Amino acid sequence: MATCFLNNVYCCYLPAHCSHGLQPLDNGVFNAVKAAYQKELGKLASLTDSTPLDKVNFIKAYSKARQIGMTSKNILSGWRITGNWPISRSKALRHPEIQADRVEVTPEPTPYLGSDDTPRLAAKFMILVRINLPALEGDIP
After folding, report:
1. Dihedral (C-alpha) 71, 73, 77, 80: value to the nearest 10 degrees?
2. Is-above-0.70 flag for pTM?
3. In the predicted model, is pLDDT for residue 136 greater than 80?
């Protein structure tokens, strides 16, 4: 820690179980490397149909993907997206996995109206429409 302090290096600790949302490499660099690696594998697959991915081909493909994905632009972007630098607590708190679970609201079932329940007065009809309108709105094309 003393060496870090003397060299203006600041250690950041991420809260437990939140690293996937706050980790700059997960949110920037690794996605770019993964996409570039898949593109390189696609190029290898197009050359021959049955080429297994041996160690040599893996190293070549990963090396190219790493050069494409591990750029200073992607690294800085990862820090900015997560809100770690410049510090933005609101970005971190808006992460979907940190938000509270949303409660699904199910509409009340529409009461069945038989032929005996047919309203005879317009006022009773309007009451039934107002009660059942929210449930009916989803059925109207």
Report:
1. 120
2. no
3. no
